[in-house]
Each structure stands twice: as C-alpha cells, then as structure tokens.
Amino acid sequence: MNILQQRVRAVGVAPRYGTTIATVDQLKGYDLVVAADGLNSLVRRSFEQEFGASVSHSTNKFAWYGTPKRFETLSQTFVKTEIGAFNAHHYRYSPGMSTFLVECDAATWQAYGFEHKTIEASQAICEQVFAESLEGHPLVSNKSVWRNFPWIWNENWSHGNMVLIGDALHSAHFSIGSGTRLAIEDAIALTRALEAEADIASSLARYQAERKPIVKKLVTAARTSADWYEHFAEHMKLDLMDFAYSYITRSGRIDDARLRAMSPLFMARYEAARSKA
Ligand SMILES: Cc1cc2nc3c(=O)[nH]c(=O)nc-3n(C[C@H](O)[C@H](O)[C@H](O)COP(=O)(O)OP(=O)(O)OC[C@H]3O[C@@H](n4cnc5c(N)ncnc54)[C@H](O)[C@@H]3O)c2cc1C
Description:
The protein has about 280 residues and is an alpha+beta fold. The protein folds into 3 domains: about 30-55 and about 150-230, FAD/NAD(P)-binding domain (3-Layer(bba) Sandwich); about 60-105 and about 120-140, D-Amino Acid Oxidase, Chain A, domain 2; about 240-275, no CATH class. It has helices at about 1-10, 40-45, 50, 105-110, 120-130, 130-135, 180-195, 200-230, 230-235, 240-250, 255-260, 265-275; strands spanning about 35, 55, 60-65, 75-80, 85-95, 95-105, 140, 150-155, 160, 160-165. Strands 4-5-6-3-7 form a 5-stranded antiparallel sheet. A 3-stranded mixed sheet has the order 1-10-9. Strands 2-8 form a two-stranded antiparallel ribbon. Flavin-adenine dinucleotide (FAD) binds near residues 37, 42, 99 and 178.
C-alpha cells in the first residue's frame, strides 16, 4: 500500500481517502471510470446485466485469522476430529505474523453448531483443533466471521466509460492466492491498452480481448482447485502419498512430467508407494 501510495503521488494523482461513492451518479463527467471497488463493487452491482455479472458461492465455510506463529512458507494442515474435518492454509505475511485461514465443509460447520457461536467461541474451537500446528500461539481475529467464498465473474469488462478491474471483476480462490497479483496485472493490462489505442472505447475493447483469456485460465484453475477443497474430507481418506499427490495436482496445471522435474524426490516416493500398493 505504501509503495502504491508513493507511486500515485509521484505521477501527480491526488488521492482522496475515506470518501464513499454512494451512487454511480457521482461518477458522471469523467472520461474514464476505473472501478477497482472490490468484491462488493457498487459499479458492478449497478450494471449487473450490462456487465453480464454472475455471483455464486462455494459450500465450504472459511474464517480468516492471523497468528504470531511463524510459518516460513505457504503450508497447509488437515485435521480430522471426531465431529468433522478442517484444513488451514497458513503463510507468513510479516516478520512476526502469519495468515491462518481455517476451512471446513458445510457438514462439519453444522455439526459444530458454528452458526450459533460467537466469533470468540468459534476462534477457541479453531485454536483447539489446530493446537498442534499453532504450538501454543493464539489465533488473532479481525472480525473473523465464517463466510462462503464468493465467485465473481463478468462476461463484459466495461460498460460505457466504466471498466472493472481486480476483485470487482473476478474473484480468485484463496487456495491459489493470487488476488492481489491479478488485480495489479489487470491495472497494467488496462494501462497498456490505453496507451496502445487512440480512444477510450477501443482501449477498453483491447483490454478485454487481451486480458480476458489470461484471467479465464487462472480462474478456471482456481475453480478446479476450489472443487478439490469442496471434497477435501473425502480426499483425507486416501493413503498419505496418494493424498499428497492428489493435493499437488488439484488445479490440473501440474502433470507427472512437471512434478518429476520440480520435485524428483517426492515423485520417487510417490511412485514407490504406488508400486507397493
Ligand atoms: C483477509 C484477506 C487476506 C488476503 N490475503 C491475500 C494474499 O495473501 N495474497 C493475495 O494475493 N490476495 C489476498 N487476498 C485477496 C486480495 O486482498 C484481493 O484479491 C485484492 O485486495 C483485490 O484488490 P482490489 O483492489 O481489486 O480490491 P480491494 O483491495 O478490495 O480494494 C477495493 C477498495 O475499494 C474501496 N471501495 C469499495 N467500495 C467503495 C465505494 N462505494 N466508495 C469508495 N470506495 C470503495 C474499498 O474500501 C477498498 O479500498 C486476501 C483477502 C482477504 C479478505
């Protein structure tokens, strides 16, 4: 955020913070409106039909926490309890803090009665479930309510002089963790399209034509990955090596040849386990 804010000032833009746009009427009179207003985009919601917008939700539940426990790399814990199955995605985001995202399927969520539990009570249960991974560290809540992941897509990326970028345009599942990168790359693609064309309409057409196939590929991989998570409790019944293989290849972007090149030791262990089975 600091880098972006410095950059904005360096190119002569005067940002206005803490200013909510309540209606799209406030956006009249501009050459171009770049709607980078996030998952709940007002601009998208105001022109759902024109953008060909669709919103759906995953059935799994997730709650997003922090923790002072240091996870050096992106890693994952799967836990089976007597009542259900959980997994946590964890990775460090600052020298002393990690993200700790807890996920469970709808059946587990219901069995634990999370619907009727306070944020604090849910957090206490998650701390208990993941006690071994947390090694005595607490979870840190930031209004960490249980949510269903929203899938957002728009067939048309612009309407008139309004154009969508980032989460307003598409969501990317946290299991592939590319939301920020995608948003920034959208902005870069839009800038290039504006530089390449003489008028706004042609620029917006070029932005969609060039960027949409790239994003579609990533979003499709994210969907496949999220589908794997929708059935993670089933996958946990696999033998360890089969489970690991199923996890690594879940988005359909890594085949055996690529895995062998990336991770020959893993592949050797996996193939040895398979030949014994
Ligand atoms: C808890 C959490 C952790 C995440 N961790 C990661 C991660 O580790 N890596 C990763 O790549 N992605 C992560 N993501 C996803 C990532 O944050 C988003 O994909 C990314 O921020 C999208 O950027 P954006 O600019 O499109 O939208 P946002 O960052 O959501 O920005 C939208 C902005 O628009 C403003 N806004 C909205 N409506 C209005 C309005 N009507 N008027 C004025 N302003 C408005 C909002 O206040 C906000 O500042 C995480 C998301 C969450 C919720």
